[in-house]
Amino acid sequence: MSKNIMHSRHDEYHKLTRGERIGYGMGDFAQNLVFGTIGGFLALHMLTVNTISTTTAGFIFLFVRIINVFWDPMVGTYVDKRTSKAGKYRPWLLRAGVPLVILSALLFAPIPGVKGSVAFAFIIYLALDLVYSLVNIPYGSLNASLTRDPESIDKLTSTRMMLANSANLLVYTLFPMFVQMAAPKDRSLKDTGFFGLELNLGNYTDPSANYAWFGVYAIYMIIGAVALFICYKFTKERVVATAEQTANVKTTDLFHELRHNRPLVILGMFFMLAYTFMFFMNTVNGFFNQFVVGHSEWMGAVGLVASIPGIAFPVFWPKLKKIFGKKGFFHLFLAMFIVGELLTYA
Fold this sequence. Notes:
This protein is mainly alpha-helical. It is built from 13 helices and two strands.
């Protein structure tokens, strides 16, 4: 018995291999590919191609966000209280991953009879967001269950950020360019901003571009599904709470913790503001380039400039943490984030 306990403790401090780190990071890659495209381009598609009014689209997004406030703690509690032979968290990558991909594709599907349908857009987007929580929350918990080894955790963070930003490169750089290349209306030779590269691009905000949107997004969803499967295949849970430890976990625990844990509240407020600004910029970017700058063909070049630092910098994160410390490291990149946001719309 004692040997089993010692082996279990040793296993908890497992040194993650490069393959394991990449395997887990493919989960970030998949989610950014699937949901990053939704966050960055669904509003543009909904208002222009799908011809839903701005007020209605805004209400749909707001209502679903409010539902998330109550839904996410319930998902966390449900997942914590259940386990299977495949693990506590890993199975959700497939259980909810497949519906996630299908629902995402349906939002862009050119289905006769539902174009401009508020009810269809609302139901599918609500279902998608609920299912996304069933992937994202267990995936976040899976991170902590892989190992307790500090060095492996630092390397894992760098790896997953590189893969997440690689997906952002595909989303914000290549996705709008691919859709414009497939869009049938108002086609002409345009300068993409990629070092003089000119391509024959169409108007991707015209309703006639619906098949172009769906075709490109369907390919992205296939890649995302494969990435989720790789994540499932190459990860192993080693640090998992027992049934006794999770027996008393309740949905209300989070709200109780927020009342008594001031550092958690501060951290939560930071993430709320950071993600608000990030999603605002990602969502508005398409409209900004199309209707303010007047050059939608530059979307790819702008996305490339924004994505490169996110892919290159994580390699240096472990060393920078040692130089500045965790708090100094946080302040450094927070300052860079704020300056970048201000310069974007200056």
